Amino acid sequence: MNRLVKGVALGAGILGLAVGYLVLRAPHRAAPREIRVASSPEILDRGKFLYEVVADCDGCHGDRNWDQQLAPVRRSGAGFRFPAEMGLPGTVVASNITSDPVAGIGAWSDGEKLRAIREGIGRDGRTLFPMMPYESYRHMSDRDAEALVAYLNTLPPAKDQRQRTAIDFPVSVLMKSAPAPVEGTVSELADRGEYLVKMGGCADCHTPKERGAPVEGKEFAGGEVFRFGKFTVVAANITPDVETGIGRMTEAAFVRRFQEYREYAQAPLPEATRKNFTVMPWLAFSRYSAEELGAIYRYLRHQKAVANQVTVHPES
Ligand code: HEC
Ligand code: HEC
User: Fold this and answer.
1) CB 96 within 8 A of CB 155
2) CA distance linking residue 80 with residue 53, whole number of Å
3) How many Å apart are CA 292 and CA 310, to the nearest integer?
4) Predicted local confidence at residue 8, as pLDDT
5) Residues 50, 37: contact at Cβ < 8 Å?
6) Do 69 and 79 touch, CB atoms closer than 8 A?
7) FRET label pair with 25: which of 97, 220, 253, 280, CA 20 to 30 Å apart?
8) Helix (H) or strand (E) holding 61
9) CB 222 near ligand 2, within 6 Å
10) pLDDT at position 289, please?
């Protein structure tokens, strides 16, 4: 064998070993914390606000009426299977996370729930598909995470049994590097806007991706395409770019853009059409105060401006 062939053979051998190692390797995980979360009316209010607004858990886990614009939630936490046309790497099901002990997570300990939410590990030690935003939720403060679990414990049981998430190779293997234990105490980030943007998954939808990974230098620049049934919507550019982003939007206009959905939601929502269909959680985020939306606005205005013209409804 000449040196080149030897080198290639060695390289392939190492690659094979590396893949073998990854397949067999367990994710980085720690035992769940031994904790019973405290509960009080104030804690449950905070947990509910985190669940319904800040983290919009029902955006994925809710049973929602997709025939109506903004897809209002019918039953909290009952679970949802993402449609095949989204092009995800396998079957992806946002689990039933209600208090039902069989179909939901009612039999889990509080520590197991905290670990799933912030560290990405299922009850049986498996890696959760990182579309479940645990890589962001690891920054959720202890106080908030515990209030969230206290609220989850009160979600009315839903009996829906859905298929489990089953991710295709090689993503099934690569994703094992996503979970990580949360160490020490976690407090809320000093910048409230940054915290809300992280918890709200703004970047997950508004930053374009290539092969599942966010494109560097294009944070919040929009362009991600969402296909749902017969509808398509594209995430807007929310960078401070003047021509193609939110550079011309004043703070007051930004706040109004969200809060106008409060009144809108009072009347029956119209049928979803090609023109109005969206996955932007307007109903959830419309419940933020002007101060909270102002903090989000200021955080976004401090990000890099990226010129990227987006047509939100390309087919209408
Ligand atoms: C962007 C979509 C999305 C959002 C938002 C989201 N989840 Fe998930 N979640 C998922 C998916 C998908 C799974 C299934 C992952 C898997 O099985 O590999 C999941 C799994 C879970 C699990 C594990 C359940 C099980 O049976 O293994 C828990 C607990 C959970 N989510 C709680 C939450 C909570 C609480 C929130 C809000 C703070 C939340 N999720 C927000 C998509 C989401
Ligand atoms: C599930 C995906 C998703 C998430 C999460 C999401 N967005 Fe959006 N957003 C969209 C889509 C799609 C649009 C374009 C359609 C529309 O306007 O409804 C949009 C539109 C917007 C617009 C309107 C821009 C304009 O010029 O009219 C703003 C502002 C915005 N999002 C801010 C945010 C912020 C802030 C967050 C996080 C707190 C966030 N979004 C989270 C999908 C998402």
Assistant:
1) no
2) 18
3) 26
4) 46
5) no
6) no
7) 97
8) helix 58-61
9) no
10) 98
Question: What is the CB < 6 Å shell around ligand 1?
Answer: 55-57, 59-61, 92, 94-95, 97, 105, 113, 116-117, 122, 128-129, 131-133, 148, 152, 165, 201
- Token duo for residue 113: 């729930």
Q: Are 56 and 201 in contact (CB under 8 A)?
A: yes
Q: How many CA atoms lie within 13 A of 122 on its CB side?
A: 16
Residue 191: how many CB atoms within 10 A of its CB? 14
Tell me the C-alpha distance between 261 and 285, whole Å: 9
Q: Is the CB of residue 296 below 6 angstroms from any atom belonging to ligand 2?
A: yes
Assign residue 87 a region (left: φ > 0; alpha: ψ between -120 and 50; beta: otherwise). left
- In order along the chain (316 residues), what is the average pLDDT of each group of 10 residues? 44 53 81 97 98 98 96 97 93 98 98 98 97 98 98 98 94 96 96 98 97 93 94 97 98 98 92 96 98 98 98 86
Up-side HSE of residue 158: CA atoms within 13 Å toward CB? 19
Q: What is the DSSP string of 238-294?
A: -SS-TTTSSTT--HHHHHHHHHHHHHHTTSPPPBP-TTT---S-HHHHTTS-HHHHH
Those residues whose C-beta lies under 8 Å from the C-beta of residue 176, and which sit 6 or more positions away, are 22, 25, 26, 27, 127
Please say whether the beta carbons of 77 and 98 come within 8 A: yes
With tokens 């449950």, the residue in question is: 44
What's at 308, amino acid-wise? N
Q: For residue 73, what pLDDT is reported?
A: 96
Contact criterion met (CB below 8 Å) for 131 and 92: yes
